[in-house]
């Protein structure tokens, strides 16, 4: 018989094994062809190589916010005044939507470094705006405090802190 | 007229007649017509001698120490005139290549000054190189390069090893893919670096500002002899000769042109084995399905599926 | 013969769907139940191989387009970026570049098979003409694709080929400038070639659908050239031809892989790794290997317009084959004289290819002229006359008769008995 179909109950034969083995090998083959087609869309080697940025922070006055570009996104570097630091540290965690202490978000209290991307839908929040004098997102009105923590929705999370941040010297910081 | 495949040292390796049979006879008859063309050409340049390379063949891979020496030759000699702008410092630490450590690459990049900017004041400025920077070019633009080199442009070296070919002639082109010979570029580069003569042969008129080279097309090359014995100091005890330098720099250029060569050949082996197994299985299935139903050798009374 | 079946899915959802869009039935009648002559040989698998290659080229091409920049100062660098930095970029580019050559290897075998077995003859003329149009589109696509890396051969190949149009009397120069979008090949040319290189493969895919449609009306020709007379002469497409085509496709993939992984630059040209320079022409411009025979014909004719006419005429003439060939016998197996002439013609095409790769001096020019003459003489004179003068061999009445009579001295019944008695013999 040319194409015999094994009837139910009969033990698997050599031909069943042959079909299963070929199917399995074919599936592996298709998988290994598809993988490069998917993987090619991931960031390439030149993009990954640019993943860190060094910034000279010596010229940033207290109270000022400087925006730099890192991995295609804005990063806010805020030189906080003692008043702002105290305000951020004294905020009770119970007032926060996404509770986090200020200490957990900074390495040096006077330098706050956060990703300038609203955690709602990705707009860039405006500095020194809103009732908490932190940031206000112009798109949908999310409010952040001087520690970049969200205080009023719709954003669900605090502004992200890029990692790693390394203070190479007192005036030079490396992000990423 | 050329009916046999002759290697560069004059040894006959194989007669195409034996391989292609009748079609080769046709081709041979045809070449007999075409042959006068060859005879009319000027005395041809000698073919570059074939070298042995660690990256040749199906299992080829780069020799890490050789690439590091090659980089040294590039850095100390070639890079004075030749750019290599598609290669970045970070590539030097890539697996399968010279495999410098990341620390070494960072230190190495910092020895170069790289132009960056504009800064907040709108000025361009120089800073130490970073691993992500491409190799800085010796000249700001093509015109500057030409002006500094007597009107000749030193070619960019990024893909130089793939941009040079050797014309073997005859019917070798039909066998070449199956020999896997793809080192024409490096053989040529090695030959040129060793092909300089202080004085051209009698009767050859060398234009001013040119140098005589056996292997350069037309023999008059604008690049003065770039390497001499002892010019680059190796730290690993390798011989400090032009022969060794030219091998090392050619290998480095091959890596620069084809940094994924090792990955490619390694993946190729897997793919070929995989497909061979798959073909075996499919062949068995095909035999089984067609069993009894002969296409051109006869028809059996075997029932068709579904009957 | 059209293979229409009354396919009714059992699953109620599919049944609901099928009654509104009978696509499962279409696929079933075209690629499952479709009756194919049982005596097809492996040359008939090249249609499937070509379908595979078209898909492979479109998939790798779309993916490469995600990284490629069609701008004259960035194109070469973006290709190097693909080769060095993009994940698996080197693999995708080598697959696409070598895939073009593989596509042409397969299409030339496919065309040669059609010529040998007379697949262009009635009632398959439209099928054949669609094939010639697909071939022309393939050539255009391949040519424009070769321009995209913007190397020296890209640039100068584009310049030489587009300059062919300047041979057209009166409007030639205007057309050339229009094609370039400037006074030379430049950024505008590169950009439009990229757009068209992306578009044409989908037009090819559309024509392939028509090609298969036109094939499924009369059904496949076969090595005997005798039409299918009864159901006994055929086998259903699935599983017989799916497995046979599948085996052939995977064998072809092995051949393809060898080039991609071990000699990826053999089919290309070293000069294309030098960035395009409008001021310097390479010493020896050659097109890709698959265009060499036409290139030789172009150079064989000393007159500019004549050369261009020879080039285009050599391909367009193929569309008229169904009427140039006056013989009623399809397969060259039954045409002893035609068979010899056809092999000579194949050799002439190969010879033209060799001439195209050489510098046009001395004997090469003479040889190209002789071979070009023979190319046209065969099509325009030999073919029409042979039909009248040739005495064909006796054709078998049916495919089944033929396969029975070639059963190496034993009768069909005996073969049947042997096979039934020992079913394990065949695997």
From TrEMBL, chain A:
Binds 1 [2Fe-2S] cluster per subunit. It catalyses: a quinol + 2 Fe(III)-[cytochrome c](out) = a quinone + 2 Fe(II)-[cytochrome c](out) + 2 H(+)(out). Residues 82-173 form the Rieske domain. Keywords: 2Fe-2S, Cell membrane, Disulfide bond, Electron transport, Iron, Iron-sulfur, Membrane, Metal-binding, Translocase, Transmembrane, Transmembrane helix, Transport. The chain crosses the membrane at residues 17-38. It is found in: Cell membrane. One of its GO terms (molecular function) is 2 iron, 2 sulfur cluster binding. Pfam families: Rieske (PF00355), UCR_Fe-S_N (PF10399). Component of the ubiquinol-cytochrome c reductase complex (complex III or cytochrome b-c1 complex), which is a respiratory chain that generates an electrochemical potential coupled to ATP synthesis. NCBIfam families: Rieske_proteo, TAT_signal_seq. Belongs to the Rieske iron-sulfur protein family. This is Ubiquinol-cytochrome c reductase iron-sulfur subunit. It comes from Lichenifustis flavocetrariae.
UniProtKB/TrEMBL annotation, chain C:
It comes from the Bacteria. The chain crosses the membrane at residues 42-69, 90-111, 126-148, 160-181, 193-216, 237-261, 305-324, 336-354, 366-389. Its cofactor is heme; heme b. GO terms for cellular component: respiratory chain complex III. Binds 2 heme groups non-covalently. It is a multi-pass membrane protein. Keywords: Electron transport, Heme, Iron, Membrane, Metal-binding, Respiratory chain, Transmembrane, Transmembrane helix, Transport. Residues 227-397 form the Cytochrome b/b6 C-terminal region profile domain. Pfam families: Cytochrom_B_C, Cytochrome_B. Its main location: membrane. PROSITE patterns: CYTB_CTER, CYTB_NTER. Component of the ubiquinol-cytochrome c reductase complex (complex III or cytochrome b-c1 complex), which is a respiratory chain that generates an electrochemical potential coupled to ATP synthesis. This is Cytochrome b.
